[in-house]
Automatic annotation (TrEMBL):
<keyword id="KW-0540">Nuclease</keyword>
<comment type="function">
    <text>SbcCD cleaves DNA hairpin structures. These structures can inhibit DNA replication and are intermediates in certain DNA recombination reactions. The complex acts as a 3'-&gt;5' double strand exonuclease that can open hairpins. It also has a 5' single-strand endonuclease activity.</text>
</comment>
<dbReference type="GO" id="GO:0004527">
    <property type="term" value="F:exonuclease activity"/>
</dbReference>
<comment type="subunit">
    <text>Heterodimer of SbcC and SbcD.</text>
</comment>
<dbReference type="InterPro" id="IPR004593">
    <property type="entry name" value="SbcD"/>
</dbReference>
<feature type="domain" description="Calcineurin-like phosphoesterase">
    <location>
        <begin position="1"/>
        <end position="218"/>
    </location>
</feature>
<dbReference type="InterPro" id="IPR050535">
    <property type="entry name" value="DNA_Repair-Maintenance_Comp"/>
</dbReference>
<dbReference type="Pfam" id="PF00149">
    <property type="entry name" value="Metallophos"/>
</dbReference>
<keyword id="KW-0255">Endonuclease</keyword>
<keyword id="KW-0269">Exonuclease</keyword>
<dbReference type="InterPro" id="IPR029052">
    <property type="entry name" value="Metallo-depent_PP-like"/>
</dbReference>
<keyword id="KW-0233">DNA recombination</keyword>
<keyword id="KW-0378">Hydrolase</keyword>
<dbReference type="Pfam" id="PF12320">
    <property type="entry name" value="SbcD_C"/>
</dbReference>
<dbReference type="InterPro" id="IPR026843">
    <property type="entry name" value="SbcD_C"/>
</dbReference>
<dbReference type="InterPro" id="IPR004843">
    <property type="entry name" value="Calcineurin-like_PHP"/>
</dbReference>
<dbReference type="InterPro" id="IPR041796">
    <property type="entry name" value="Mre11_N"/>
</dbReference>
Amino acid sequence: MRLLHTSDWHLGRAFHRVNLLEAQAAFIGHLVATVREREVDAVVVSGDVYDRAVPPLAAVELFDDALHRLAGLGVPTVMISGNHDSARRLGVGAGLIGRAGIHLRTEPSACGTPVILADAHGDVAFYGLPYLEPALVKDEFGVDRAGHEAVLTAAMDRVRADLATRAPGTRSVVLAHAFVTGGKASDSERDITVGGVAAVPAEVFDGVDYVALGHLHGCQTITERVRYSGSPLPYSFSEADHRKSMWLVDLDAGGFAGAERIDCPVPRPLARLRGTLEELLADPDLARHRDAWVEATLTDPVRPADPMARLAERFPHILSLVFDPERAPDDPDVSYARRLAGRDDRQIAEDFVTHVRGAEPDEHERAVLREAFDAVRADEAVREAAR
């Protein structure tokens, strides 16, 4: 059986105010063409179909078009909801849509109920694990502590229990939306940290033939059988070095038999340029970036006049301008943003406590801060689910 693994479409998302709907429509066309030309037997979409819980009408129409085109090919599709999706909205009509071969898996309670497809070697069981917000699903899975590893382990226990009841030789594919240890994040993924921990070990998924992951936007291999497809389009300049693609995965009688990357069409390359304004305007080597979407970081010690307008004459598609004056590390004017770079909300809060009190928070105080941030996240998740 041949699978096409994709995820993180984020339909309706813009790139620095550039409407990406046309580029997303081109990706859907590329997806459908790949399914047809490469004789794909099933498509798996591992969450974040939409960019937000209530997507714009144009994004819904594009999703509807994608479903009709995939159903028209007669190729089954298995799809889960991600942390950007409204599971309830995405799952509306799942029973009816399933009759057309589009299998939406948005309910945590159905993690152990597979979609069964067959090839010449027998059955393949597809288990859809939608994004599991720990605070909302811990009771469903009977875990004491609301954490990603705990709820995913419980969900995978249901998968393994069901798989044990299947005929010998039944192969298995799991779709999951999570941050797995070893994965490399970018700036465009929404933080899912709970209890100070976002990542779960790949061993959570032991016992299945292939794990089709979503959430991280870079295509990457955690293990041979555990992979992220990444997003089909760039959604931040941190993805400038990404090669946007999908995985074409083959299963034989013994399970996983190999994977091939299929490149996705990208409307424009990304370029991150750094230097003084005069360097960026004069350097002949930068001419190759004229047609790219550009993020320019200016290192001038004093902010120059009209930098965006002057840069736009050379780089018509410049979208982002950052000021990062080069100063000595001990200069008091070193930017606040630089000091915060790479630090999450909890670490920033702990630094604030240290700054105000003159001493670092102790373990009890750190636990209180973690619980406060988790409570805010849980409240946001409840309100998002109710929308």
